[in-house]
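Project standup — Tuesday

K.O.: blocked on the structure for the chain from last sprint. Re-posting the sequence here as requested.
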Amino acid sequence: MVLFMWILLGLMGCLLVWGGLRYRHQTQMLKRLRYSLRAAHGQLCEQNKVHAKDGNRWAHTEERLRGYLSLLDTLINTIPNPIFFKDTNGVYQGCNNVFARQILGLTRDRIIGRRPQELTDQIPPDLAAGYQREEIKMMHKASVHTFETEVQCADGQRREFLFSLAPVIDEKGHIGGSVAVLVDLTEKNNALRDRMQKEKLEGVLETAGAVCHELNQPLQALSGYAELITLKPSGDECLPYARQLISQIDRMRDITQKLQHITRYETTDYVGLTKIIDIHKASAQG
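H.V.: unblocked you, prediction finished:
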């Protein structure tokens, strides 16, 4: 009985020692766990701070980017010349209000994402094909390409424009599309044509004046001689020829009169590809 008690006491002592060791081990584990949790919480707080800073930075960057895009859109729409952008497939990626309103007569949302060939009511097929040929030339040159051509405007009239096409180069040096700026040359070209017509007319008037001056005196002499022939009795056999001569002299005099009254530059086809002044249309007496 005593032995049993000692054994029982020994077992209880071992249990107490084991429990104490276990409790100590658990306590140390809890301390390490608390330390790890505090360290993780600290790291999480630091990461949250970094993320908050990054979030503020990204928000500030995004705000600046939106402001820049808004400014760029305002600047493009302030420019009085029509402007548009296309990708490498010829699809409109953007344009200013002048191009949308005055050239195509559409809102920008109805233009962006479409090709000229899809806007047949606004861009006739013959003009669209011509624009495409010029864009191909620009792509092959990989530099600014300019050309003059007609454009059908929103009012239905065709006007003459100067196109300045330029490739859009990305950071890798690849062509990502094109940008075009249009300049209306209609009034300028009309004024140039009017000036050329005026210069041509001045040249014609000078030449006509000189011809008339040189021909008038010989014509008067020929007319006088022909009349003398008709007055001589011995000239009966020459009378028909004299009358024909007088008729042709009168015709020449009529031509010189018309030359003296030329008011505009009009031409007519002559032999081959040659053109000559149409005296009858150009003269006020025509």
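K.O.: great, moving the ticket to review. The first helix runs from residue 2 to 78. The chain is about 60% helix and 15% strand.
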